[in-house]
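call fold(seq) -> tokens
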Amino acid sequence: MNRAELWKAVRPFVKRTPAVIGGLIVLLLVLVAIFGPNLAPNDPAKQFYDHMLEGPSRLYLLGTDHLGRDILSRLLHGARSSLMVALAGVLVGAALGIPLGLTAGWYGKWWDTAIMRVMDVLLAFPGILLAIGIIALLGPGLGNVMIAIAVFGIPQFARLVRGSTLQVKTLDYVQGAQAQGAGDFRILARHILPNVLVPIVVMTTLRTAQAILIASSLSFLGLGAVPPDPEWGAMLADGRAYIQTFPHIAIFPGLAIFLVVLGFNLLGDGLNDMLDPRLRRNM
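ret:
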């Protein structure tokens, strides 16, 4: 791909300022998740008893919490766990939901009906309620939070891919491959899956934002991260009792969650504009 073709491909994304902002926020999160623990000025679990409930200062840039722990260090360490749990849960959900959606849309009949009715049952529960139910069965912990996020994501990916498969399988090149004797696996892998990747990529980005919210909510309720592990939702819960007297304890983790979720949503919208050929023609 030469420079002109590359610019034509990314122009719809670059021309949208919110999408660029979202991409920069997500890039910053990834860098913090990779290098943050090495940049943290203190151990996130270390308690400085002489500096409890201190506001932002030159010594502690974001202040300390009720146990004297450095909030900046905890935020930097928590970025990795928040991103890894959310992204791993989404990817596992996609890995399970995509094959179900492909086969349901391709084979149809009783297989389609059986899969979609199970997906409908899962979608009948609100996301956070389903996640709480799974955590109640498995117990608290970030690993179980990842499982809860994955289970919640399976029906969303399955329904999305099924709908796209139903559209693509009627196209001439797919029917031509069938007429030439291509097997089902070859058609699904080489002709249908590549043509449904655009909605999958966009859904993955948007689902990651939702997964971060679910993981933070579960930790806020005491069902996610186990103390003293730093996690943004758990940090927000710690600051709840001090919101009127020492608001910085809750403001900084809450702001981190807000910015990251906003960034993924803006990035998802930008990717949709860049990858969808119908929208590219109008740019």
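The first helix runs from residue 3 to 14.
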